[in-house]
Write a structure and sequence with these properties.
heterodimer, A: 260 residues, Rossmann fold, 8-stranded mixed beta sheet, two-stranded antiparallel sheet, 6 helices, 27% helix, B: Rossmann fold, two-stranded antiparallel ribbon, 30% helix, 16% strand, globular, Proteasome assembly chaperone 2 (chain A), Proteasome_assmbl_chaperone_2 (chain A), Proteasome_assmbl_chp_2_euk (chain A), PSMG2_sf (chain A)
Chain lengths: 260, 386
């Protein structure tokens, strides 16, 4: 359920929604962090749901001492009026027993808000790629039928690769192909829901392994930026992303001096 | 800032979506291997006839009516409760057993990802009526119930919007915080037990009778009210509240409190190992307090705020989320301690947190009382060598 900070409900008509899937390496979430922090999006509300594990902390995108102590929760909505862009950042895992309800609440929010398109940032296990997926770029996309007409030509121009379907029964029969996104969390389910509900949605995903996934987040951010032109490219040809202060100590705290 | 970002996150998501305090992965693997080994040994003993007879009903060898490839593979037959056609009436009586089965299933050790579960989600799409029924029964059993004593429930009923007037709600979670509340506040005898939250989960079997209050010393969520004035409530939570129950817990508690004029203080504790900082903390700095507050909270906070990238999870997080979204002034004081069990030094740190109110008198406890709350918290669970 979307809960706005102000009394007035903001209108998302013809806005683009970006949201991460909780997937391997947290790549989608990290990329969403980059977008929010670089474009300095404004927090406009929360996504209050029993489907996520509760979590709180201080402002992850703090720029000064004044705004450092704004409480942030497990799912928050950020927005830019000029860019007509909304980002839903999800910071906690989804409860296993509530996955279906969670997907349902996301789909109904997208429908009622009237977003022109939804982009799901996701990732998939690199080690599960099949032979055809091993070669070339690790980045893939998927478009729901409702977005095909609008975004299809531009995607073709960019020469993006669509997420390949794999055999349902490898080695037995090649006739049945299915979409397979291991480690992608709700990606496949949400994409299928949007296809069924005629919602314009794009999945932008990357094959990766777990570890330091900051480079993957940059790669996914750049890939998305090629399509949506969220920020202009620098002289070196890549956009200047702004790393949020909350990314520090990603691999733990200081080292006890006593061990040396 | 992502809850499960970084290898050093304090939580280990398990198969059922529950997070437990980080155990060393090697320990988990050992448990997994031990569980597998034990069950395989038992199965072998049953088949070879050397097991106790009461196990024979549980495990049967797989026999075929005609010769098949599988006939000489020494397989086991499916246990009766897995076979198709299992009647729905049996479910209610065996939810307990099922939960155990689910937990056991959940404990298998596989490739672990910090972000997602490895289960193939397609199982879920094709779940049949029986699965839905089981899921519904389990959900019903995991519901959180709030019970008031007769006087308070009368007062709630008498109120037009069925809520209780409360100026301050103090919620204590964790051994040190609950110990502090017991030793410094509740000890003064000016408090009444007025209610409790009854809940059931894999670590908290709860009292068998839903309508009777938990026995003293039993893990529970008790609510206390000040005898005079009665506008201060203390909720002391010593039991484990599972992740899927946290949201419900807060909804249930706040649904029966009047929102206007309410201020919430949460006291909680965490091990120092969960605290991330670039400088290393030395013995003399520990324990220390850190705070988080909702935007509606305008009072002075008596300690530094929790620095990024530190986060808080569990019941304190659920309460703060709820208060932030509903515009209730709330503050969380989290104590970081390097002692595993409750200790008096860590308890003392919370004194700072309660200086805002004149209505609560902190009474320095005697040594005897302190000892009562600091001892007995150090019983070792799941020691491999005992």
């Amino acid at each position: 359920m979307f809960v706005p900070i102000d009394e007035t409900r903001p209108s998302f008509k013809s806005y683009t929604l970006i949201l991460p899937a909780i997937s391997v390496g947290n790549v989608g979430q990290l990329a969403a962090d980059l977008i929010i922090s670089t474009l300095q999006l404004q927090k406009i509300g929360y996504f209050h749901t029993d489907g996520l594990i509760p979590m709180v902390g201080n402002n992850p995108y703090a720029t000064s001492a004044e705004n450092a102590n704004d409480l942030s929760t497990n799912a928050e909505v950020y927005c830019s009026k000029d860019l007509k862009l909304t980002v839903l950042q999800i910071r906690a895992p989804i409860l296993q027993t509530k996955i279906k309800q969670f997907r349902k609440s996301i789909v109904s929010w997208i429908k009622s808000s009237g977003f022109s398109k939804t982009v799901l940032l996701s990732s998939s296990h690199a080690y599960q790629r099949d032979d055809q997926q091993l070669e070339g770029t690790p980045l893939r996309y998927l478009l729901s039928p409702a977005l095909q007409q609008e975004a299809g030509p531009r995607i073709k121009e960019l020469e993006w690769r669509e997420m390949e379907k794999v055999c349902a029964f490898p080695g037995i029969s090649d006739s049945e192909q299915r979409l397979f996104i291991p480690g992608g969390g709700i990606t496949k389910g949400l994409y299928t829901d949007c296809c069924n509900e005629d919602i314009p949605m794009a999945v932008v995903l990357m094959f990766c392994s777990e570890g330091d996934n900051i480079p993957d987040a940059f790669a996914l951010g750049n890939y998305l930026n090629d399509w949506l032109h969220l920020l202009s490219k620098s002289a070196q040809g890549s956009p200047q992303w702004n790393i949020p202060p909350s990314w520090k100590l990603l691999f733990g705290g200081g080292i006890p001096p006593a061990i040396f | 800032m992502i809850q499960n970002a970084g290898g050093a996150s304090g939580l280990q998501p398990t198969q059922k979506g529950t997070c437990y305090p980080a155990a060393h992965p090697a320990t988990l693997a050992t448990y997994g291997a031990r569980i597998k080994f034990k069950s395989l040994t038992l199965a072998y003993k049953v088949v070879s006839g050397s097991a106790p007879t009461y196990l024979n009903a549980l495990i049967q060898t797989y026999t075929t009516s005609r010769p098949l490839h599988s006939s000489d593979e020494r397989r086991l037959a499916l246990p009766p409760w897995v076979r198709a056609g299992w009647r729905a009436e049996q479910i209610a009586s065996s939810v307990d057993r099922l939960a155990r089965y689910a937990n056991w299933k959940g404990s298998r050790v596989g490739v672990h990802s910090r972000a997602v579960e490895e289960d193939d989600r397609e199982d879920e799409e094709s779940e049949n009526e029986e699965d839905v029924e089981i899921r519904r029964e389990l959900e019903e059993k995991r519901k959180v119930h709030l019970k008031w004593c007769p006087e308070v429930s009368q007062a709630v009923e008498a109120c037009t919007d069925k809520t209780l007037l409360c100026s301050h709600l103090i919620i204590a979670v964790g051994t040190n915080a609950t110990g502090f509340v017991s030793a410094f506040i509740l000890n003064s005898a000016s408090w009444n037990r007025v209610g409790w939250l009854s809940l059931w989960n894999e670590r908290n079997r709860g009292s068998s009778l839903m309508n009777s209050p938990p026995a003293p010393g039993e893990p529970s969520c008790m609510i206390y009210q000040q005898k005079e004035g009665g506008s201060v409530l203390i909720c002391q939570c010593t039991c484990y509240v599972a992740e899927d129950q946290l949201f419900q817990w807060t909804e249930k508690v706040f649904a029966c409190l009047q929102k206007r004029g309410l201020t919430v203080t949460v006291l909680s504790d965490a091990p120092i190992a969960e605290y991330k900082t670039s400088d290393y903390h030395h013995g003399s700095d520990i324990p220390f307090l850190r705070a988080l507050k909702t935007s509606a909270y305008k009072e002075v906070v008596n300690c530094p705020f929790l620095e990024q990238p530190n986060i808080v999870t569990g019941l304190p997080a659920a309460v703060l989320c709820h208060c932030q979204i509903h515009g209730i002034p709330a503050v969380l004081y989290q104590s970081y301690s390097d002692v595993i069990s409750a200790d008096s030094v860590t308890m003392e740190t919370y004194k700072l947190a309660l200086t805002w109110t004149k209505s609560i008198k902190l009474e320095p406890p005697t040594t005897d009382i302190l000892q009562k709350f600091t001892r007995g918290c150090d019983d070792v669970h799941g020691n491999l060598y005992t």
